[in-house]
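In this section we walk through a basic example: taking a raw amino acid sequence and producing a predicted 3D structure, encoded as discrete structure tokens. The instruction is simple. Fold the sequence below.
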Amino acid sequence: MIAARGDDRRGVTLVEVLIVMAVIFFVLLLALTALPRSRETARLASCGLNLSQIGKALAYYDGAVGHLPRVAPPGTNGPGPLGAVLGLFGLDDLKNLEKSGSPPSAVGRGAPSEHVVRGFLCPSDSNARNSTFPAPVNYRANTGSGTDGRDGPFAIGGAPKVAEAEAAGKDFTAAFSERLVGSGPREFSPINDYQVVAGPLGQEPCPPDSPSARRRDAGSSWARADWTSSLYNHAMTPNASPSCIASDDLTARMGASSAHTLRVNVLMLGGSVRGFTPRVDPKVWRNFGPISVKERD
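The resulting token sequence is shown next.
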């Protein structure tokens, strides 16, 4: 007679339970870590697309007018570069540029009223999305390598042609860059905000921080043609702080900045968008600022 075998089945041990729980925890941890990265990757891509669209708008403007938008001298009225583009084509949003399937013809309706243009906002900048300002903008025009705004594609009073830049091999001169808008009613942030100080400003860093000199309205309006809202220069590397503007508005150390992880998007005159880290060599960064070494009237 054959003896009955004992039941080989056994319960799950505590060690096995712990192993399964550890695997599940590890998978969840990977998912939670990857989610913020994927969101930021999407925001970075969206920011780059905004700059690409601005590049197309500038090309259309140059084709219609014969030169890039002019930046008004200090003390005179005039729309910022992006305001000039919108006004020339009678648009409220740059996305309307391509709806017709071909570049629009110049209609010259004048600068539009201030309003929020989604394509002018970077989704990584929470201050730009919270409606603190009537017409916030995260993208600024490059006035050049120095603090006086005289040698860039959007030098004060200048109006270069894209063809001239191409002929001179300056396609990779920076046209626009990201910059965080001001903190508004929030606590002063050296990267978001700036100071108004005595000028003229040279290549030396901004003076020591002074609470009375602090301003929190950087990037408050794309319609304005001044350092405060729509201009920047390559006198300081990305995310360097603090930025400062001379009280007479003739010189500035207004730097590029962004909320992206170790990257600032820059639109080149040739239409490409490049990323720069805050650790970029200062000389390399300044070399992307000028379009010409000679002054223009």
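Looking at the output, two observations stand out. The helical segments are 14-65, 81-89, 126-129, 162-167, 282-287. The CA atoms of residues 169 and 252 lie 27 Å apart. In the next section we compare this with other chains.
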